[in-house]
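User: Um, any thoughts?
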Amino acid sequence: MGRKVDLIVSSGSLSAALAAKAATSTIPIVFTAISDPVTVGLVASLARPGGNVTGSSPFQFELMPKGLELLTELVPQARVIALLVNPDDPRAAGLSGDMQEAALTKGVQLPILKAGTEDEIDAAFMTPRPTTGRCARRQPRSALQQPPQPTRGVGIASYHSGDLSVARSDRFRRPDQLRTEHPAPYRQAGIYAGRILTGEKPADLPVQRPTTFELVVNLKTANALGLTVPPLILARADEVIE
């Protein structure tokens, strides 16, 4: 930390936020869109972060079981929904357990595919499924679910890059679930940056969480994958992209 800076803003990357925290305990740090920052050691608690770090945290992991439910409605014939996780992420174990419970409730199999590099992602898509011995590329009635990304193309940070998995899902014709980029965490980072630069301390600024949620259906993507979006999902959608 050779430069004299008054504030560090980490934009959507867990590895960047952890690196910033490891580099300084005095310069204020504001992170954006990091799921479960307590488990990964960024803050002591959401209400009282402590130290020099605060920011915003979406309900990404908490909403994953709901995403699996929607995926089973979108692809009702799916009997295997693979979950793609980075085994090096300390949040992976808890997420995997929650998702297994949700899969049991919906009556689908949920193999856990572990991948943290580009080669491992390629290998994960070719992993044989337990019931048929077929890989994800050839497995019928299958889908893919992955922990959502705050942005796409940010590289392998906490989980793998969204771009890598999207490319493979498109190539292998598998529906997947991704979170789209949203500006709210970045606006919140700007607000917190301003408050800190005018004298407030990160330790006293609670980690912010979203208060509104939207269901967006992209019909263009669904059509490209040969999927028909059920009317009930369309009726619940806040936005439908034609």
About this structure: The first strand starts at residue 8 and ends at 11.
